[in-house]
Amino acid sequence: MPADTPDARTPRVAPLPEAEWDETLKAVAATTGPLNIFTTFGRHPDLFQSWIGFGSMLLMKGTLDGRVRELAILRTAHHRSCAYEWKHHHRLGLDAGLTEVEIAALRLDLADHSWDERDRAVLAAADELHARGTLSDAVWEALAARFGERELIELVFLVGHYHMVAFALNALRVQPEDD
Fold this sequence. Notes:
By secondary structure, this protein is mainly α. Helices cover 63% and strands 0% of the residues. The protein folds into two domains: 43 residues, no CATH class; 107 residues, AhpD-like (Up-down Bundle), CATH 1.20.1290.10.
């Protein structure tokens, strides 16, 4: 059953007004703009400060290249029916070298697109982590043939992190920004 997506729904937690931002939220917004994900999560300053460091590491300082990272995130956003995550990472996926055709194929069965072996392994991992909460030996071996130990660990954390973010975005009904 698909998630209850927030597109046409009222947020359960409204974004924090700029006058109430702490220094961490001000610094993040100065870099990214006042995105609803940050101004909503920023209502819990201690949690936000801890989370933003971890999320920033995965997004900007990780060992995975941008293409791999965005394949895993977009596949996770699809699995979680997270419109907010999909919208933001669609753009980031294009910036990382994914094509519109590839991004559209992330909503399809793996067999419905001619992914190369590396991409297929990443997507199979995202699929299995979503469905089973673990990886089969076959998928692990496919990943291990292409990635080092740190990348393997990071990929599992990345998919898990973006599941958690999708849960929060959907449950809090964080609205995508108007373009």
